[in-house]
Amino acid sequence: MLPDTPTGKLLIFTAPSGAGKTTIVRHLLKHFGKLAFSVSATNRPMREGEEDGVAYYFLTDEEFRSRIEAGDFVEYEEVYPGRFYGTLHSELHRLWSQNMVIVFDIEVKGATNLKKFYPEQSTAVFVNPPSPEILYQRLRDRNTESEADLEVRIARAEEELAYVNTFDRVLVNDDLKTALAEADEIAREVLEIGK
Questions:
Q1: What is the tally of structural domains in the chain?
Q2: Is residue 174 situated within a structural domain?
Q3: C-alpha span between 195 and 190 (Å, rounded)
Q4: Could you tell me the CATH number of the domain that includes residue 181?
Q5: Among candidates 186, 193, 159, which has minimal Cα distance to 28?
Q6: Is 172 a member of any domain?
Q7: Would you say 170 and 15 are in contact if contact means Cβ atoms under 8 Å apart?
Q8: What burial letters (b/e) apply to 140-178, b meaning 16+ CB within 10 Å?
């Protein structure tokens, strides 16, 4: 951990892939200027249209592993075989030094680890799909992966859904307009708007 660095609040949105957490986080970032997005690090290849330091901090396998050994991560996870994602201490401190509340769009185990590391400063929200079947259909409808990769994602989603009641709040994303309104209310509470 970096010495003598500021700390502040964390607003963590987590869910299995396809539940809608990214849509919710993008909405909040657009409507609440005091929120700043935590850019995760990954060793996955950059996709077309992505920019280093915006979508992710893209690291090589070797860079990611050396940063793990150096203790540079608040949390990291091997989300898929050989594919790591993590939150750098330096990213949190960069945003806190700007007096921002940091918002996360993060997988379930990473969210659990962040909450453990910053229990008093974080509000963790699990975005729950209306049903597992709807979630699996959303993943299929994306058409972004091979059948084998899709099966891995569905298996992981099944595992992650079991964590639903381990977070501070559960937001069911059945109707997007309702889910966004509920997310707005959670953000107002964390930002202490209207108090």
A1: 1
A2: yes
A3: 11
A4: 3.40.50.300
A5: 186
A6: yes
A7: no
A8: eeeeeeeeeebeebbebbeebbebeeebebebbbeeeee
Query: What is the model's pLDDT at position 6?
Result: 61
> Which regions of 34-184 does DSSP assign to beta strands (E)?
35-37, 41-42, 57-58, 73-80, 83-88, 101-106, 122-128, 169-172
Domain that holds residue 71: 14-188
The two tokens of residue 76 are 């990291």
Evaluate whether residue 112 is within a structural domain.
Answer: yes
Quote the tokens at residue 99. 């007096």
In order of 12, 17, 39, the CA distances from 154 in angstroms are 22, 9, 25
Q: Give 35's strand partners.
A: 101
pLDDT along the chain (195 residues), means of 10: 66 90 96 96 93 94 97 91 93 95 92 92 93 80 77 83 91 94 97 80
Distances (CA, A) of 28 to 101, 106, 191: 12, 15, 12
The amino acid occupying position 67 is R
One-letter amino acid of 109:
K
Specify the pTM.
0.85
Supply 102's token pair: 């940091």
Residue 193 lies in a domain: no
- The contacts of residue 116 (CB under 8 Å, 6+ apart) are none
DSSP state of 60: -
Cα separation of 21 and 106, whole Å? 8
